[in-house]
Amino acid sequence: MCPFVTVHCGFRLIGCYHVSLRASQRKRIIQSQLSFVRSNSGGFSEKILFYHKLKTKGVASAVSEQQPVDPDPTSPQHSLPNAFYRFSRPHTVIGTTLSIVSVSLLAVQKLSDFSRLFFIGVFEAIVAAFFMNIYIVGLNQLSDIEINKVNKPYLPLASGEYSVKTGIIIVSLFAFMSFWLGWIVGSWPIFWALFISFLLETAYSINIPMLRWKRFALVAAMCILAVRAIIVQIAFYLHIQTFVYGRLAVFPKPVIFATGFMSFFSVVIALFKDIPDIVGDKIFGIQSFTVRLGQKRVFWICILLLEVANGVAILVGASSPSLWSRYITFYAEYLLIPLVR
Length: 341
Known about the structure:
Number of helices: 17
Number of strands: 2
Largest sheet: 2 strands, antiparallel
Shape: globular
CATH architecture of the largest domain: Orthogonal Bundle
Mean pLDDT: 78
Helix content: 55-70%
Strand order of the largest sheet: 1-2
Strand content: under 5%
């Protein structure tokens, strides 16, 4: 995890708070906070009171969760591959890849289905989704540069490693490559998955009138649920079922279960991702559930949802007509124990 920072006294703004950060980080955070206060005349005293309450606890806790930005441009931390790695938000890439692989396996009915066409089809889906994933996370960073200077100062756009122009070039290129690959593959399920994801995630992030849906907690959660739980599960299953295998578009029980389970899981993603970002979200007016309800309450809501989802999964597995499915589902937790470190 990222190192903790030490809190000292210093910056005075009707009450003073100051975080001992490296010089470049401290300057960016203070400037973004000042510009926000100056640009919002309404509710000025409320914002000052909020900053006063944050003095040490709020800002320190937010920044302490983040990886400090290395100001040395010659550092390996600032290499191009490392910057792109952080820009791509690898945990989202891994999650998307595993989701596509798992739902693709639901279309497999017999051992002979593990053919060359199957692996090519899965590879095409993963690459197209990877390109779209870079567009989505990149657009989100372009729209949240000032917020990320507080919440995630290690990201390339927030740290200044990437310019805004570089970010725009990257997201435009990857969006084009995603649609290009989806078109030449010729799979309509893939193409529509990319197109709908593009529309929803653009509306979620981009800061123009009537959009930037991430400002509204319920709408933001519905966007994430629609993409992660419904589009990914159904579209990429249909890609293998109809395009690769040429079978009818049927939705068996496992696909319905996967969609339902991932609906719970996607809500947890939508809630959990905002827990460490409460400080920046408060400053810039993002009304996430964490801002509304508090970090502790949202955390335990997420735990409850995961318990419900896994409890239902155990019941579904235990009621399966397949003997091997019942045994593996019931004892699957033991497979996770060696992974806990």
